[in-house]
Design goal:
313 residues; alpha/beta; UDP-N-acetylmuramoyl-L-alanine:D-glutamate ligase; four-stranded mixed beta sheet; binds adenosine-5'-triphosphate; binds magnesium ion; ATP-binding; Tagatose/fructose_Pkinase; nucleotide-binding; Tagatose-6-phosphate kinase; EC 2.7.1.144
């Protein structure tokens, strides 16, 4: 079973307008509304690959109900904790007359109390066990302690569950101390963790990955955008190529990668094939609009183009 956790979901609302300027009235030519948040995107991609997942986290108010409704329509199971306040709506205004000119408005999201964290912990513990994979991804509301992924990882590992964490900054730092099974930093996130600038060599990225392995993480996947990824665990390391695709939106490609890795592990797919699937799924995700998952048929086509280059032993 794969349980995704989204602490700060959102309704993503995209408005198309012409000649965007502040302080004036615009006629909106198109509106797209979607249930968003990194864990929710992971659940959607697992579902698109043919896997089963339960989406959890915090929701509030009528926006929260809309997200649940969207998941129901996709036949994705969910078990969110309801909190005071309203789940955020993030608005993207796309100026259709200027390519790539997007203005974003991101709400802070509702306040999460210690009691809410307690309720979520109890919910997750109900699902915990040796055959459960938990995926924690994305940022958390400002009111939540930065140790929250670390705290929950410790609790769930005690029950023999497998934990994946995709986070940055202090959230990642605290999570690493709890020794999650897998982390998936991108090159920026892993170099920032070590206070380095992003433009380091591949050898340095591998060394940084090894340092994180030494801290007790089982698998490190360093994603490198269109250059593919580096996979390290205690037995070996390899890298892959990136796949050439017609990219529409690379936002959420990391979520797609995490989804494929969780799906592959849950389905007992051999590790190298999981890596191939992760590269194909994430490249496929770049070809769709927004964070929409790729079709399984496309992933199965792209998987044939993934090459594995052993690094060590
Ligand atoms: N332009 C691209 N072409 C092909 N594949 C891509 C491209 N961008 C990303 N990918 C695939 O997606 C994976 C993850 O991308 P990236 O390293 O950008 O993740 P990320 O920064 O965590 O993304 P996000 O957090 O927005 O989901 C890459 O390892 C690669 O397989
Ligand atoms: Mg990411």
């Amino acid at each position: 079973m794969i349980v995704t956790v989204t602490m700060n979901p959102a309704i993503d609302k995209t408005l198309d307008v012409e000649n965007f300027t502040g302080g004036t009235i615009h006629r909106v030519t198109k509106v797209i509304q979607d249930a968003g948040g990194k864990g929710i995107n992971v659940s959607k991609t697992i579902h698109a690959l043919g896997g089963e997942t339960i989406a959890t986290g915090f929701l509030g108010g009528s926006s929260g109900r809309m997200i649940e409704h969207a998941l129901d329509e996709l036949h994705i199971e969910h078990q969110f904790v309801y909190i005071e306040g309203e789940t955020r709506t993030n608005v993207k205004v796309v100026d259709t007359t200027k390519k790539g000119f997007v203005t974003e408005f991101n709400e802070p999201g509702p306040t999460v109390t210690q009691r809410d964290i307690q309720t979520l912990t109890e919910t997750l513990e109900l699902y915990a066990g040796p055959s459960t994979i938990f995926v924690f991804s994305g940022s958390v509301p400002a009111s939540v302690d930065k140790d929250v992924y670390g705290f929950l990882t410790r609790k769930l590992r005690k029950r023999q569950s497998t934990v994946f964490v995709d986070a940055a900054g202090q959230l990642l730092e605290e999570a690493i101390k709890a020794k999650p099974f897998l982390i998936k930093p991108n090159a920026y996130e892993i170099t920032r963790h070590f206070n380095l600038s992003e433009d380091v060599s591949e050898e340095t990225l591998i060394d940084l990955g090894k340092e994180l392995l030494a801290k007790g993480v089982n698998t490190i996947v360093i994603s490198r955008g269109q250059e593919g990824a580096i996979f390290l665990d205690h037995q070996r390391a390899f890298k892959t190529n990136g796949i050439q695709v017609q990219a529409h939106s690379t936002v959420g490609s990391g979520d797609a990668m995490l989804a494929a890795l969780a799906y592959g592990l849950d389905a007992d797919i051999p590790y190298e094939d999981c890596a191939r699937l992760a590269i194909a799924t994430s490249a496929g995700a770049c070809t769709t609009l927004g964070t929409k998952p790729p079709a399984r048929e496309l992933v199965d086509e792209l998987v044939k183009d993934v090459l594995i280059y052993p690094l060590w032993p």
